[in-house]
Amino acid sequence: MKFFDKAIIYIKSGKGGDGCISFHRAKYIPKGGPDGGNGGKGGNIYFISNNNINTLVNLCCQNTYISENGLHGKNCQRTGKNGKNLIIQIPIGTKIIDIKKNITLISFNKNNQTFLIAKGGKGGLGNINFKSSINRTPYKRTKGSLGEKKKVRLELILKVNIGVLGFPNTGKSTFIKKISSANTKIGDYFFTTTEPILGIVKNKFNNTFFSILDVPGIIKKSSVGKGLGLNFIKHFKHCNLILHFIDISIINNKHKITNNINTINFEIQKFNKKILLKDQWLIFNKIDLFDNINNLKFYINNILLNFKFIKRYYFISSKEDIGIKKLCIDIFKYLYN
Fold first, then answer.
1. Cα 21–Cα 26–Cα 31 angle in degrees, nearest 5
2. Domain that holds residue 63
3. Region 240-263 average pLDDT
4. DSSP bridge partners of 166
5. Same domain, 222 and 144
6. Measured between alpha carbons, how far is 71 from 67 in angstroms, rounded to an integer?
7. Same-domain status, 168 and 306
8. In principle, which of 44, 178, 209, 307 could form an S-S bond with 202, CB 3.0–4.6 Å?
9. Domain of residue 23, CATH code
């Protein structure tokens, strides 16, 4: 499913039904009096958060939402049927903005959070309501009121545990696909990942899990729109840990590894400094290309002397499934211990 984190939709709640003008008719009651019923209430429109949804794609495909109108009142003092309410399900982390007023109406932070976005119109009054001692046969009723109309913008910031970043083609997508059921696109060309990929990793022994998000590769000047930009990095706002992927095949160029680490962190700093305050682990991928890991560790330790903020580093192979199990175990320990 394609990922969408923004949507603009038009909503219109139901109109109230009109009141009825009617007079009671019976064989032996020639002047039965007024008996017109009231109109039904128009349907409301609600937003409800659902933790099983992680994209706004459905709202982008359908951008107009209209709830049912209330039915008109009937004779014999019968009230018209109320219009059916409309429920729009959205992901946790969605913010609703009223475009006309340019104000944030609500931010959804938990599952099953409900918000009335548009109230249905009231039903009109039937002529039974206008009977009086001086007006026994009122030919008066009121029409149902209109429902509310709004144009709103939805912005989604996912709440994930682990954020994954790195240059293009560092093996991030292969890693996500290996450890979760995420359907990722993999290939040997620039920007294989063109949109965020969300995966869920479950621990079958204790029923714990963590969510992990892969975003498009970052390159120099991404913060000013080069490549695919940095807009998707906003989804790291709530994450606990960042995995920074490095292609270990460039190990012969010590300057390039250092430069790559600095470049990505510099671009993130320009986008949002607070993201760099989160714990960051370096993941040196494609270890299957080398025979002597001990020499690599010694070499990398020297490089990491320049990066005091790096908490841990790992050697893995997403392709050959090397070191991935230990990394996942350590992630679970980090999150749940």
1. 65
2. 1-156
3. 83
4. 245
5. no
6. 13
7. yes
8. 209
9. 2.70.210.12
Give the residue carrying structure tokens 């949109």. 195
Judgement on whether residues 210 and 131 belong to the same structural domain of the protein:
no
In this structure, the answer to whether residues 147 and 180 fall within a common structural domain is no
**Of residues 281, 274, 289, the one with CA closest to residue 319:** 289
Q: What's the token pair of residue 254?
A: 């010590």
Cα–Cα nearest to 63, from 7, 11, 9: 9
Lowest mean pLDDT among 234-238, 241-245, 298-302: 298-302
Centre a 10 Å sphere on the Cβ of residue 101 and count the other Cβ atoms it contains.
9
Token pair of 180, please?
């979760």
Q: How many domains does the chain have?
A: 2
Q: Are 186 and 177 within 8 A, CB to CB? A: yes
Examine the fold and report which residue of 94, 121, 156 is the final residue of a domain before the chain moves on.
Answer: 156
Encoded tokens for 332: 């679970």
Is this model's pTM higher than 0.70 or not?
Answer: yes
Say which residues have a Cβ less than 8 Å from residue 277's Cβ, sequence separation at least 6. Answer: none
CATH of the domain at 255: 3.40.50.300
Which of 122, 123, 120 is closest to 148 using CA atoms? Answer: 120
